[in-house]
Write a structure and sequence with these properties.
Strand content: 5-15%
Radius of gyration: 19 Å
Strand order of the largest sheet: 3-2-1-4-5-7-6
CATH architecture: 3-Layer(aba) Sandwich
Structural class: alpha/beta
CATH class: Alpha Beta
Helix content: 25-40%
Number of domains: 1
Order of helices and strands: EHEHEHEHEEHHHEH
C-alpha cells in the first residue's frame, strides 16, 4: 500500500529500481530517510517469472534495501503509455498519497519502451499532482521538490549527480540476487539478463560511475530541471563542516 515517504523510487518493472538506483535507495534508507518503491507493472510480460513469483522477489529485494514499503500499481506490462489518462491518474494518486519530497524516475532516453513511457508518466504526473483541480478525487494537491532520473540496464549516462554508494553496495547485490527469476542462469530460459555476466556489467557501470568522483561504486542521475542545492543536501543528509578561521587574507578577488 502506498504511504507517506520522503523519497519515492519508481520503476516500470519490479527490478528496475534495484538495477538503476538500488544502492542509493539503500544509502538513503540507512541515513534515516523514509523510502518507498513504486512498481508501475508486475513485470508479467517478462520471458521468465510470472507476476506472483516476481511479487515475492520484489518483497525480498525491498527488505534487502531497507525501504519502508513497496507497492505495485498493476498497470499493463508492455502497455505503459505516457498519454493514457487512466494510467496518469493512477500515478497522480500514488504521488499524492506518498507526498515525497524527492522522486527517482527512469531516464526517458532508455531504449526500453516501457521505461521511456514510465518516464513520461512520472514527469506529467509530478506536475499534475500539484494542480488542485486535476482529479481532486485522487487526493490533495502535492508536487515533489526534486526529480532525478536513473539509467536503465542498457544505458550509460553522463550524470549531473553521482552518489557514492560504496558503503551500501552489498545491499544492492542482495536485492538483485532476490530477483532470481530474472538473473539466475539456472532458473529458466536463457536471456540476456540471465546470461551470467549481466550483474557484472551493472557493477562495471557503477564502478565506472564511482570512478568519476573517486569512489569505488557510484550511481549516476540526470537532472530533470535545476538541481536545488538545499534539496540535494537534504536528500543525502549532508553536513557541511565549518571551515574555521581563515589562515590568510588573499585580498579582494584573490585566492589562497
Amino acid at each position: 500500500m502506498v504511504g507517506p515517504c520522503d523519497v519515492l523510487a519508481v520503476g516500470a518493472h519490479p527490478d528496475d529500481v534495484e538495477l538503476g538506483c538500488g544502492a542509493t535507495v539503500a544509502r538513503l534508507a540507512r541515513a534515516g530517510r523514509r523510502v518507498g518503491i513504486l512498481d508501475l507493472t508486475a513485470g508479467e510480460m517478462g520471458t521468465r517469472g510470472d507476476a506472483e513469483a516476481r511479487a515475492t522477489e520484489a518483497r525480498a529485494a525491498a527488505a534487502a534495501l531497507g525501504v519502508a514499503w513497496r507497492h505495485c500499481l498493476s498497470l499493463p506490462d508492455g502497455g505503459l503509455n505516457g498519454g493514457d489518462d487512466g494510467q496518469l491518474a493512477a500515478v497522480v494518486g500514488a504521488l499524492r498519497a506518498a507526498v515525497p519530497r524527492v522522486v527517482l524516475v527512469p531516464d526517458d532516453r532508455d531504449p526500453h519502451p516501457d521505461h521511456a513511457a514510465a518516464a513520461a508518466l512520472l514527469r506529467r504526473g509530478a506536475f499534475l499532482a500539484g494542480v488542485g483541480k486535476y482529479r481532486p478525487e485522487r487526493g490533495s494537491a502535492w508536487r515533489p521538490g526534486l526529480l532525478l532520473a536513473y539509467p536503465g540496464p542498457r544505458q550509460l549516462l553522463a550524470p549531473a549527480l553521482v552518489v557514492d554508494v560504496t558503503a551500501a553496495y552489498a545491499a544492492k547485490r542482495a536485492a538483485l540476487a532476490a530477483h532470481a527469476s530474472q538473473f539466475d542462469p539456472g532458473a529458466g530460459t536463457a536471456t540476456h539478463l540471465a546470461s551470467g555476466h549481466f550483474p557484472a556489467a551493472i557493477e562495471g557501470r557503477d564502478r565506472a560511475c564511482g570512478n568519476l568522483i573517486g569512489a569505488e561504486f557510484g550511481e549516476g542521475f540526470a537532472a530533470l530541471g535545476p538541481l536545488a542545492a538545499d534539496e540535494i543536501a537534504w536528500l543525502l543528509a549532508l553536513r557541511v563542516p565549518d571551515p574555521g578561521p581563515r589562515t590568510s587574507d588573499p585580498g579582494p578577488g584573490g585566492r589562497d
